[in-house]
Prior knowledge:
Elements: H1 2-16, E1 23-26, E2 42-45, E3 48-51, H2 52-61, E4 63-66, E5 70-73, E6 82-84, E7 93-98, H3 104-112, E8 118-120, E9 122-128, E10 139-141, E11 146-154, H4 161-165, E12 170-171, E13 174-182, E14 191-192, E15 199-206, H5 213-216, E16 222-223, E17 227-234, E18 243-244, E19 252-257, H6 260-273, E20 277-280, E21 284-289, E22 298-300, E23 306-310
Helix pairs in contact: 2-3
Amino acid sequence: MDEYKKAIDESEKGLSALIIPDIFSLTHHLPNEKILLTDQTTVILSNIEITEKLFFVLLEKTKVTIGEWFSITEHVDSEDCIREHSKARRSPFCLERSYGMVSNLTLENIERMAPKSIGCSLEEVKLYNTCLINILPKLRINEDCKVKRLELSGREKEHVATILSQKQVICVGSVGTMTLKEYAVSILPKLIIHEGHEIELLELAATEKEHVAAILAQDKSFCDGRVRNINLEEYAVFIFLRMKKVGESPERLMLFVDGDDVWRKIQEELKKEKTAICIEEVEDLILKKHAVNNLPALKTKREIDLFFFGCKQ
């Protein structure tokens, strides 16, 4: 018991020696004193570049305020995690987070941030089943940045709730492959690519009608820009009813419907709106499993080069 009390006393003395500021401005020059940052500390991030690893720790543990000229970059163990803005690396990196609980403090920090307040040069974005998807509107992606892959999935509506509740669009630069799954599909109308660029592959997968309810509830169609190849799975096929094509039609379209009830609901929706799925000048059309049942509802303006049926046995 004496040893236990001694350990407690030493721990308390150690904490009392720490400085616990109400406000702390993070710079590349770290203070000589020992500083303890808590969930009551407001950390100001301005005129610096920090690693994404440090950034997410601060989001979770402190109150974050973002000022001017702030950016994040890749974490490298052998390099400094804090730099002056003028010495920022600006090298493309992969922003990846998945699963795990996100603290209320993290969500509060994200909601307080101004749109496009976090500078970054991204090569890939992979956010899986996490509320951190809601940080996308806060990113300021370099216009000359080519994002090879943008992959988002959200099993819970909360994973994209903040984005859906706001009106601003999200500029994701130039994207090679964009994959949206489950509730993440619902933010598609808010994602904008730079003018003059095209998406090589757009993949949408929604296993529940609720995943696309936000899009179907819109009275007007939205623009998907120039997309070369489109894969739509299950309820994501409904998205075609709200897509307004701009420029050329996709070269390749794949529709996959595994559930018998899904294609029937698609047919009901088409009859209710007295419309069809217009595939315009698609060169290659692939229908898998129950998607073949929607063939009569497809309208095209040209002869299709490749027509593939993947019928359910």
